[in-house]
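Quick question: what would this complex look like in 3D?
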Amino acid sequence: DVKVTQSSRYLVKRTGEKVFLECVQDMDHENMFWYRQDPGLGLRLIYFSYDVKMKEKGDIPEGYSVSREKKERFSLILESASTNQTSMYLCASSFRRSGELFFGEGSRLTVL
Amino acid sequence: DQQVKQNSPSLSVQEGRISILNCDYTNSMFDYFLWYKKYPAEGPTFLISISSIKDKNEDGRFTVFLNKSAKHLSLHIVPSQPGDSAVYFCAASANSGNTPLVFGKGTRLSVIA
């Protein structure tokens, strides 16, 4: 079974703090993605990566950066957390670039 | 501009009846469509997909119908069960392309016992 593991299920941070969200997949997938889910807004793509050390901006990259140093690991970074970044963050991986996504369980971030 | 639209934010259905969730798309390049189910505090899980070469795909209680001319797809759940209560996301892609899946905003299904 494909397993996508997100390091933290629940985080509470203060405004201005730096936040790291880690994601690891064990299926040797080339492609990895970060989404955020908010009520009424659905799943919005933040960043994605089709290869190690490669990254592409999604629909809402502002305020975020990513790191892909190893194939299995894709990290989302909030340089200076703000309250409007309170959300559920979902990591996913896929075999094909436009194919079926396998999601992690999500990281619920609250910024106070 | 939203390329994948789920116009019903919520739907309530009696247990045992049919649930029909709808999805419309605008991009004529889309040729692969998926439905995901999401429970609170969990990641979405893949439910069923359909390629544009088909107009129907069935998996147990779940059937997806595709009407290419209308750029419309629907997910039918028969019979609906309380455990089906979740948010359902429609997603689409240009299968031969290099772009990620595009998701709709989701429909919250409540199956009432």
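Answer marked as accepted. The interface with chain B takes residues 4, 9, 33, 35, 37, 40-43, 45, 48, 50, 58, 90, 92, 97-106, 108 of chain A (CB under 8 Å).
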